[in-house]
Design a protein that fits this description.
The chain is an alpha/beta fold and 364 residues long. It contains 16 helices and 10 strands. Strands 1, 2, 3, 4, 5, 6, 7, 8, 9 and 10 form a 10-stranded mixed sheet that branches. Strand 1, helix 2 and strand 2 form a beta-alpha-beta unit. 51% of the residues are buried.
Length: 364
């Protein structure tokens, strides 16, 4: 998981079920393909973090008459690049998992064809970044944020940081681990968040302060969260020494739900003033062999049933107004009222230059 550009982490307890779902879906669709010449098979191309409850997927297959084949193409950055290379002759019908940090790359390369999904009126307008053309449909949202180890800060009688500025203070020297912005989605999101906070001319000075304050950089989320971070179950086993990590606002629910026994409160907190909004999209691939099946699948992805299933499978928030996250998720969820945001066009215009500058500044 070290090269996880654009890829949301899937917690260990989730990946076991995910493998079963994907294998089941692929197996059943292969039978359908041979029997019906592929007309009743709809292929979903995704990053490796796709997950859905088996019964929810079966409901779609039963109601629509289509069987779903899932093709996982690595992390989202890799998957998007493959989709661009296969433009016009795609591997599947629908692509899921391009987020707002990579959206402009996909749209500029024309890999999607327009389709206005049924139920789009239930999706919040703030998530509809391609509303005029409907080349992509918003599916889920979340926030990339600094997480903190509650136990560490309590034992050291230290107030956890709450903002970007706090992280550069001497009190938090050598406490933060983040991911490489050139290889990791949360790493890139954290960089974009700092650019949104401090502006085009101020983010580099901020990162100079972080570097001087001992920020540690690792390749990807798995290493940062499950090895370096002292507040996660994996980090405890690995003797992680960093009580601050760039992760997600949904890390506290995941950490608590898969603890045995479940704690009253999560051992992980969120510095809500360090967050950057992430939105994931799906779209009908240009040249799809099963256009109708792909459209039906997009309708399903913003249906109430699927939207309410996502939080405990992919640890993301619904984007539709009619969906309610499960109680087990909301019990531990941290509300982020005002995450930093940035338009896909601004990201497109600056992403490569910012990552190059960040690499020279922080890693050399």
């Amino acid at each position: 998981m070290s090269k996880n550009m654009g890829r949301r982490p899937v917690y260990v307890a989730v990946t076991v079920g995910l493998g079963l779902v994907a294998l089941s879906a692929c197996g059943s669709s292969d039978d359908s393909e041979s029997a019906a010449g592929g007309s009743k098979t709809v292929t979903l191309v995704s990053h490796d973090s796709w997950a859905v409850s088996k019964n929810v997927l079966k409901d779609f297959e039963k109601q629509s008459g289509y069987e779903v084949k899932v093709l996982k193409d690595g992390d989202a950055g890799e998957a998007v690049n493959k989709a661009i290379l296969s433009k016009g002759n795609p591997q599947g019908d629908v692509f899921f998992g391009v987020d707002n940090t990579l959206l402009s790359r996909a749209l500029d390369n024309g890999i999607f064809t327009s389709y206005k999904a049924k139920g789009l009126g239930e999706v919040g307008s703030e998530y509809q970044l391609d509303a005029g053309k409907h080349r992509v449909t918003p599916i889920d949202t979340g926030s990339i944020c600094v997480n903190y180890d509650k136990k560490y800060f309590a034992e050291h009688k230290l107030t956890p940081p709450s903002s970007f500025a706090d992280l550069a203070e001497p009190a938090y020297k050598n406490l933060l681990v983040t991911e490489n912005a050139s290889t990791s989605s949360p790493g890139l999101g954290f960089l974009l968040g700092s650019a949104a906070q401090y502006g085009d001319d101020g983010w580099q000075a901020y990162w100079k302060k972080l570097k001087a304050n001992g920020v540690k950089v690792v390749d990807g989320w798995d290493q940062a969260y499950n090895e370096e971070f002292s507040g996660s179950a994996g980090g405890k086993k690995a003797d992680g020494e960093r009580p601050l990590v760039v992760s997600y606002a949904s890390s506290p629910p995941a950490e608590a739900i898969y603890s045995d026994p479940q704690p009253k409160t999560s051992p992980v907190g969120v510095a809500t003033g360090t967050c950057f909004r992430q939105i994931e999209f799906a779209g009908l691939l240009d040249g799809a062999k099963n256009t109708e099946g792909g459209q039906a699948l997009l309708d399903f992805l913003i249906s109430k049933e699927f939207q309410e299933d996502m939080p405990l499978n992919m640890f993301v928030d619904p984007v539709t107004k009619n969906a309610t996250a499960p109680a087990d998720y909301t019990k531990y969820a941290v509300k982020v009222d005002a995450p930093e945001t940035m338009s896909p066009r601004k990201i497109a215009d600056n992403r490569d230059d910012w990552v190059k500058s960040w690499t020279s500044l922080v890693l050399k």
